[in-house]
Amino acid sequence: MSETTQAVKKSLSRRYRKEKIFRATGMAAILVGLSFVVILFVNIISKGYPAFEQTYIKLPIHFDEQTIDPQGERDPEVLRRADYMGLVKESLREAFPDVKGRSDKRDLYNLVSKGAGYDLADRVLADPALIGQTQELWLLADDEIDTFVKGHVTHSETIPLAGNPVVTDNDGQLRITGDAVVMDSLQNSLRDLVPVEMADEEETVMLPDDGPSVLLELQGGLVRITAYDPEGVTGKVVSPLKPDATDAGWNLVLHETPEAERRVKDKTIFWVRTLESRGLVEKHFNTVFFTSGDSREPEQSGIAGALAGSMLTLIVTLLLSFPIGVGAAIYLEEFAPRNRWTDLIEVNINNLAAVPSIVFGLLGLAVFISFFGLPRSAPLVGGLVLTLMTLPTIIIASRAALKSVPPSIKEAALGVGASKMQAMFHHVLPLALPGMLTGTIIGMAQALGETAPLLMIGMVAFIVDIPQGFTDNATVLPVQIFLWADSPERAFVERTSAAIMVLLGFLIGMNALAVFLRKKFERKW
């Protein structure tokens, strides 16, 4: 074998080895990219899907005529101004008659959303015959209660205990003792839950106030354990006991997160657990999320206003950007003279495609709002700004679609006597239209996800009402996500992720539509 042959074989071996390394590197890069996408989607979905359910509390509401319409005139203005939250509070007081203190009553009332009164008002205005009746209604729970029911506040454990305990009151401190069955059950369960061991049989273990909550549910009330020893446990009352309670069962409950570190207190959790035991707490599909506008209360907030604003803004963008972009592409590709002026226009179009989107927001603020005096925070102005931003993308895509049509089609049309205008609009444009639509949809998807230019024209405003026209105050879905992400309430984290899921769904749908159009109308030349 000659030296040349050996050199060639070595060269081929190196080349094949490098090719394998290149392929492996490329596959690794793809896998890394896909893994990041999967992590992103898993993170968003895991945080967002609970927002599609909302906690409701079932209460018997008596539509008292003296509270709603004492004159009996059924005047809509009088019905609208009635104290419907008072009806809700009365029902809660009847459900928990032992709650007496002002602070405790305030915490009790916070079980139900402040928006429940508006829901009752809408029901009465829709059907005044409800006045004087009593109905059991599912009312929206407060966001903190909803967060607890979904398991985000604290991890809890409940252990049923055996025997019949004996409760004695020593100057406000409760002492729980009992026979051997009671003490064995209680002590063993405490040792399982509380990571503190007694050094000897006579030692008293003190539970810190700033530690996890260790509680006893017994005799229809709640006691927080402060100390325990071999003879029994000592605690303080959280919710009053009822010695005549018929339920003889009792439970040991642990809330791992210290009470000082959570907004839902032990007594509130006890009330919720009591309602759950009666079948009065359920999670239903969160229709409010899709039918309401923004709100300061997380449980009342929704994306309907932002969706309406996004749709109105995109309609303006589409009606302006598509005909202007396609017309500019046709002119530059087929009719514009080849000179320095045309070259300057083409260079600027390509440069505008890479300009940061916030620059278009500044342009819209200076021109459309400051100079022309158009209303701030309006879909009309948002659509104009997004039109400027998407035009370069549509023009470039449309020109590429025109270039993809074989020149022979235009030449054949010209050869049989068609004018240049007829050849373009009757023969070339229909064949290039699918590619133009694809570029337009991609540009619209980009516009749907933009935030920065819309912030500059005031679409960051807090909008409660759903916009009905192009000049109404509005916001858009990306800006709504931005606002919720900055809110401190835990429930807004769910709604932020859920809104991102909705936005991603629209973006994926628009890109899928673009792929479908390209595949369906694509011509093989």
Tags for this entry?
single chain; 525 residues; alpha+beta; MetI-like fold; 3 domains; eight-stranded antiparallel sheet; three-stranded antiparallel sheet; 13% strand
Task: Tell me what you see in this structure.
The longest helix has 46 residues, at 3-48. The chain has 3 domains: 51-149, no CATH class; 156-262, no CATH class; 300-521, MetI-like (MetI-like fold, Orthogonal Bundle). A hairpin with a 2-residue loop joins strand 8 (221-229) and strand 9 (232-239). The strands form 2 sheets. Strands 3, 4, 5, 6, 7, 8, 9 and 10 form an 8-stranded antiparallel β-sheet that branches. Strands 2-1-11 form a 3-stranded antiparallel β-sheet. By secondary structure, the chain is α+β, with helices and mostly antiparallel strands. Helix 15 (407-415) runs antiparallel to helix 16 and helix 16 (420-448) runs antiparallel to helix 19. Helix content is 56%, strand content 13%. The chain has helices spanning 3-48, 65-68, 76-81, 84-95, 102-109, 116-126, 143-149, 180-193, 266-277, 288-291, 304-335, 340-352, 357-371, 379-404, 407-415, 420-448, 452-456, 477-485, 490-521; strands spanning 53-62, 134-140, 156-161, 166-170, 173-177, 205-206, 213-218, 221-229, 232-239, 250-255, 281-285. It is built from 19 helices and 11 strands. The chain starts with a helix and ends with a helix.
